[in-house]
Write a structure and sequence with these properties.
Length: about 350
């Protein structure tokens, strides 16, 4: 299979994208990589590495889309940007199964809509990141920001897609799906929540009811469904809370000699905590619901994280995720279609 990689737009530059791609090619004989970006820069980085030259190709691009630009305007006007050219390859080359980018989230999502399009039957695609739980497992959050205004039908499609994704990527059979709400009781929430609860209960998924935000990392759930606004607030709140706790812990250890001595004995514990919250260990957020696989990595991704994003596409392509989503939505029938 071929996977196209947008080499620019991320915080650490083309080096991490190229190094990650070479590592994947060297370790997985079934993968070819298409690197898209400034040709001279990519060639220079490749010249320092050993790899099978028959399985890496370069598509030149002279422009880069930044986070400061309007996503729609940038995708429309910067035709020779690394991201737009990568989408061109994804659309036109039948052998290319997916795309990886750690650039502007808005531009990645806009490009997916404009260049690739939705899977038939899916009302709206959605971003689905993965986070660790306190039981050592993983939990998926869908949507985390692609759709700030939703209808109940959208959340039904989110739930179906994330359930299939959980099985494909995490190997969880019959994943437990919950609806983000202000309480666990069936009648909690607003009218929108009530309607979503009613429709989700009728789907052929393992819907286990409402979930309060405090239980997101508890390990009780495999998939949490939300509209993009609430999902993004939840995700950013967790990121902020983790940063705050880690910063306070570090500062308090520095402020006390006794704490410094104690920290020496807890070095292994702190290392384990750091690994748990290291984004490099979890790959990227998959944009579910478009016709080809798209994985959006974190902007600060290093080569390890970038590699995991590429392998994420490989795993999902082998599972034929997009086709399975289309088949599942089609099998549900017209009942949900009437809600669109």
């Amino acid at each position: 299979m071929k996977i196209v990689v947008d080499c620019h737009g991320n915080d650490l530059g083309a080096k991490v994208a190229v190094e990650a791609s070479v590592k994947v090619v060297n370790e997985h004989e079934d993968v070819k990589i298409v690197l898209v970006g400034v040709e001279e820069e990519i060639k220079h980085i490749l010249s320092l590495l050993d790899y099978d030259e028959t399985r890496i190709e370069i598509v030149p691009a002279s422009q880069i889309i930044t986070n400061e630009e309007s996503p729609t305007e940038a995708v429309r006007k910067k035709k020779d940007s690394s991201l737009v050219r990568a989408y061109d390859v994804l659309k036109e080359d039948k052998e290319v199964v997916g795309l990886v980018s750690c650039g502007s989230t808005g531009a990645v999502l806009t490009g997916a809509f404009m260049k690739i399009g939705r899977i038939r039957g899916i009302s709206r695609p959605a971003l689905c990141p993965m986070l660790p739980t306190k039981t050592g497992g993983k939990v998926l959050l869908i949507d985390s920001g692609a759709n700030t205004d939703c209808k109940p039908i959208n959340l039904c499609h989110f739930a179906i897609m994330a359930s299939i994704y959980s099985t494909a990527f995490l190997g969880i059979e019959n994943p437990k799906v919950a609806l983000l709400n202000i309480g666990t009781e069936d009648k909690k929430g607003n009218e929108f929540s009530h309607e979503c609860f009613k429709l989700l209960s009728k789907l052929p998924i393992n819907f286990v009811g409402n979930m309060e935000a405090k239980d997101f990392l508890s390990g009780k759930y495999d998939v949490v469904v939300a509209d993009g606004f609430d999902g993004n607030v939840l995700l950013k709140s967790i990121e902020g809370a983790v940063k705050f706790v880690m910063s306070e812990l570090k500062q308090n250890i520095k402020d006390s000699f006794a704490s410094k001595i104690g920290a020496l004995f807890m070095k292994g514990t702190f290392k384990k905590m750091k690994e748990t919250f290291n984004i490099s260990n979890y790959g990227g957020a998959t944009f579910l619901g478009v016709k080809k696989l798209i994985v959006k990595g974190h902007g600060s991704s290093d080569a390890v994280a970038f590699e995991k994003c590429i392998l994420q596409v490989r795993t999902l392509a082998n599972f034929d995720l997009c086709k399975k989503i289309e088949e599942q939505v089609k099998n549900i029938g017209d009942g949900l279609d009437e809600q669109q």
